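Much of what follows relies on a compact textual record of a protein's fold. A complete example follows; check for yourself that the lines match position by position.
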Amino acid sequence: MGSEPVEHHRDQKVQLIDWDFPMVRYPMAELSALDEHTYLHGSEGLPAAFFAGYGREVSSELLLVHRIVGCLGWLSGDDWALWNADPDVPLLARDRLDRWHKRLLIWADRIPDLI
């Protein structure tokens, strides 16, 4: 069984699959969560190219409000304590959660400068 060459077409589109809450929700909440997770993985957030290809105007101010609410909500929630207390959380996942927690705290410290 040989490997077939992959055909590339200019009209191909990249599509995202949302496994977290697979339902239609509030687009700004979804965009802010995606922006936040991009940040958590080491970027400063979604790149301008994402918004250029998004297909509709996105209010950066409204996106920022959603990011702030999401960040503060997550930091003030019980998730962190539950994950730290759970002995079944693998070490690699625990390390990632620790990095994410630190990055969220750093981002939260920057909120006054962002607004």
The chain has a mean pLDDT of 85. Residues 27-41+57-114 form one domain. The helical segments are 27-40, 48-54, 60-76, 79-85, 91-109, 111-114.
